[in-house]
Amino acid sequence: MWRYVVKRLLYLIPVIIGISFLVFVLMDIAPGDIVDMKIGEDSVLTEEQIADLYAQYGLDKPLLVRYFNYMKGFVLHGDLGKSYTTGEPVMKLYLQRVPSTLKLALASVLVSVVISIPLGIMSAMRRGSLADNAASFGTLLGLSIPNFWLGLVLIIYFALKLHWFPTGDDDGTLKSLILPAITHGTGLTASLGRTTRSSMLDVVRQDYLRTVRAKGASERRVIWGHALKNAMIPILTVVGTQLAAALGGSTITETVFSWPGTGRLLMDSINGRDTPIVTGVLILKVIVISLVMLAVDLLYAAVDPRIRAQYTKSAKRRRKVS
C-alpha cells in the first residue's frame, strides 16, 4: 500500500515540471506581458525606464533562465514567487481564495450526489420506462447547457427579478452559495447520473441479487445494501474526479458569479499576464487533483474487498521475496 502511495506521489514530479514549463512558454509567447499592462498605450516612459521595468520583473533574462530560477525557488524553499501586480507571495494569495473554492466545490458535489445517484438508481431499476427516458433526457440536457449560460439565467431570474439571492460574491451566507452551487453542480449531476445508471445496470443483472431476494431481503436492502455497494467503483471515480476538478477551481462559475475562488484568481492572472500566479496556481491545482484522486484510489480498497485482497497479496508476496 505504502509503495503504491509513494509511487503515485513520485509521478507528480514530471507532471509539475511539464505543466509549469508549458505555462512559462505559453505566457511568454502570448501577445503582451506585464510591462505592457503596466505602461499602457499612452506611455511617456523612456526606453531606459521600460528596460528597467523588464529588469525589475526579470523579463530581461532568457525563458529557460527564468524558468530554472522559478523552479529552484519552488523546489528548495517551496516558494511560488510573488505576484507581478501586487508584489504579494503567490501562496498567500492562493490560500486566501481556498475557503471560497472549498465551499463551492463541496456544495456543487453535494448537489450532484444528492440528485444524480437516486436518479441513476431509479433509471436503472425502471429501464425503458417513461421515468427512465425522462431522466436520460434530463441528464443529456444538463450536459448540453453551458455553465456560463445557466449562471446568467439564474442571476437574471432569481437575483435580479425575484431578489431571492445575491448576484454574486461570497458574503459568507448560504444564500450567496446556492446559485453558484446549482450552476456548477448541474453539469456534474448529468455525468454522475449517467454513470450511476450504467453501473447499476451492470450489477442488477447479477445472480447474487436473485439469491439475496430469495432469502427474503426487502427491495430497498437489495438495492441500497448490495447492488449500490457493488456499483460504487465507477461512481466513486466520477465523484472523485468532480471533487478534484472543483477543488482546483471552477473558473467559469467563479467568473460569472464574481466568486472569490482560485479559479477566478487564475483567470484574472491570465488576463493580467501575471506569470508567477498562473504558474503557482496551476502547480497547486495539479497537486490537489493528484492527492484527491489518490485518496479515491485508496477508497476503492475500503469499498471493494477484492481490491483490498490484491493489496494484501502484494504485500505478502514482497515480504516472502525479502
Question: Can you describe this structure in just a few lines?
Answer:
The protein has 322 residues and is mainly alpha-helical.
Molecular structure report:
The chain has 2 domains: 62 residues, no CATH class; 230 residues, Orthogonal Bundle (MetI-like fold). The protein has 16 helices and no strands. Helix 2 packs antiparallel against helix 15, helix 7 crosses helix 9 and helix 14 packs antiparallel against helix 15. The longest helix has 36 residues. The mean pLDDT is 83.
The separation of the N and C termini measures 16 Å
Tally of distinct domains: 2
Helix vs. strand class = mainly alpha
Integer-rounded radius of gyration: 25 Å
How would you sum up the major sheet? none
Helical content (DSSP H or I, runs of 4+):
over 70%
Supply the CATH superfamily name of the largest domain: MetI-like
| Low-pLDDT segments | none
| CATH T-level fold name of the largest domain | MetI-like fold
CATH architecture group name of the largest domain: Orthogonal Bundle
CATH class of the largest domain reads Mainly Alpha
Number of separate strands? 0
Helix run count: 16
Task: Name a few traits of the molecule.
322 residues; mainly alpha; MetI-like fold; 16 helices; 0% strand; flat
Topology:
Layout: H1 2-10, H2 12-29, H3 34-39, H4 47-56, H5 63-77, H6 90-125, H7 130-144, H8 147-161, H9 174-204, H10 207-214, H11 219-230, H12 232-247, H13 251-256, H14 262-271, H15 275-303, H16 305-321
